[in-house]
Specification:
The chain is α/β, with parallel strands linked by helices. It contains 14 helices and 19 strands. The protein is about 30% helix and about 25% strand. The longest helix has 18 residues, at about 220-235. The relative contact order is 0.18.
């Protein structure tokens, strides 16, 4: 049985175009678009019609950096694949790319299988995986080839967290050399973890234990140094590089310089670096613990360079690095020792709205909003044009967005499984109204109509920005 839906009268916004158009959906895919009011549009017939008059019709968001159920610091991220993908849908995101983790001494396959078992049958929206490579050896390198062939085409390494995820320069170089051959993309957490650990030890010895010191020891210069080193290692390997959660002016400068030199280097930032700052880490009492993440929040003056980087395309993607830990019982593990606060913030539900607010605030254009939140992450990680756009043949991942609705972000009303909001009390204009995932309504006029298990695993092709 064929199922058809038509969305009428909205302003369709993609990374490249804006037009008042009707959208015909058939069997989970976009079948056609036609200018509203034309004979072609009026000829669209369907069992279900959605009136989008006065609304935006946009592609579902692609969040290419989430950590559902991630083990970290003796606990687990508080969102499961079920709660996290439901919250993502509420926020207008219809695809996540999460990180499967290789444990040291274990195979990539074992880690990937573990994440498949966490996610399968539990997701409200479609999902894919990157692979965290914690243990580079000859077997791991061979496995990287196999994973690329089956649609896991990106590998994350850490210059931070010695003793947990850390890779030294030799291991990084080997993995980069392998990705240069197999078409994979190395994603880098660029912070000098060895030096940071020295500064952590010295701060604690001085009695500097409050959350704000988390930001002070993880210095912007050590993010910039690691970013520079990662770029040079990628250059030696002849490999592309994607630097995750860029937070500092100095790191943006390293990326800009590399891109000006013609290197295949890409950068991602996150809403927390665009909207929050060290002022939050310094909130009185232990409140600052809510904002502990790595890379850390920076002084407010860094935000202008991040916005500029997004406008000039020195930064291409805004993902969330969604990795929530409850304040009560999880963040509190670090009372009296900031280094024991689990690193991570909730945000998968807030990204699309915060970036729409950025449009209203004049930081980016409407099309750039869709580009950095939908189209570019889909292209970067081999999901385009199935995801990230509204065009014939694409999956019908579509959001009906009310650009004039006002809302106040709060833990009272959000759907993430965490007891606080990083943006508590912030007023934003713009709100998701209806969300379709492959043509199926997951959120219908602000009511959840989805289900766990609707979302399916989506293998990816290689990065579409490489020659």
């Amino acid at each position: 049985m064929s199922s058809r839906t038509v969305i009428r009268g909205g302003l369709v916004i993609t990374a490249s175009d804006e037009m008042h158009a009707d959208v015909l959906i058939e069997d989970g895919r976009i079948a056609a678009l036609a200018a509203s009011g034309t004979p072609a549009a009026e000829a669209f017939s369907a069992e279900r019609a959605i009136d989008a008059t006065g609304r935006y019709v946009i592609p579902g968001g692609v969040d290419a950096h989430t950590h559902m159920e991630l083990p970290f610091g003796g606990t687990f991220a508080s969102d499961t694949f079920e709660t996290g993908t439901r919250a993502a849908a509420w926020g207008g995101t219809t695809t996540i790319v999460d990180f499967a983790v290789q444990a040291v001494g274990r195979s990539l396959r074992e880690g990937l299988d573990a994440w498949h078992s966490k996610a399968e049958g539990n997701c409200a929206i479609d999902y894919a995986f990157h692979m965290i490579v914690s243990d580079v050896n000859q077997e791991t390198l061979k496995e990287m080839d196999l994973l690329v062939e089956e649609g896991v085409t990106s590998f994350k390494q850490f210059m931070a967290y010695p003793g947990v995820f850390y890779s030294d320069d030799g291991q990084i170089l080997r993995a980069m050399q392998r990705s240069a051959e197999n078409g994979g993309l190395i994603m880098m957490h660029a912070e000098n973890g060895i030096a940071i650990d020295v500064l952590v030890e010295q701060a604690l010895a001085r009695g500097e234990t409050d959350p704000r010191y988390h930001g002070e020891v993880r210095k912007a210069l050590l993010e910039a140094e690691a970013t520079h080193r990662a770029i040079r290692l990628a250059q030696v390997a002849g490999a592309p590089l994607y630097v995750v959660h860029v937070s500092a002016t100095e790191a943006v400068a390293e990326l800009a310089k590399a891109r000006d030199a013609g290197l295949n280097v890409f950068g991602e930032t996150c809403p927390q670096y665009l909207f929050l700052s060290t002022d939050n880490l310094a909130e009185p009492g232990f409140e600052g613990a809510k904002y502990v993440c790595s890379t850390p929040l920076r002084p407010r003056e860094h935000q202008a360079e991040l916005w500029k980087g997004l406008r000039t395309n020195d930064l291409q993607v805004v993902s969330t690095d969604h990795c929530p830990f409850c304040f009560t019982g999880q963040k509190e593990l670090g009372r009296g020792d900031f280094s024991k606060i689990p690193n991570g913030l909730p945000g998968v539900e807030n990204r699309m709205d915060l970036l729409h607010q950025a449009v209203l605030d004049g930081h980016i254009s409407r099309r750039r909003w869709i580009e950095i939140a939908c189209a570019t992450p889909a292209r970067m990680f081999g999901l385009y044009p199935k995801k990230g756009t509204i065009a014939p043949g694409a999956d019908a991942d579509v959001v009906i967005y009310d650009p004039g609705a006002e809302q106040i972000i709060s833990a009272e009303t959000h759907h993430m499984n965490v007891d606080y909001s990083a943006y508590e009390g912030r007023s934003v204009t713009g709100r998701v109204e209806t969300v379709l995932s492959r043509g199926v309504p997951v959120v219908t006029e602000r009511e959840y109509t989805g289900r766990a298990g609707h979302g399916v695993y989506t293998p990816r092709s290689t990065c579409q920005y490489l020659n």
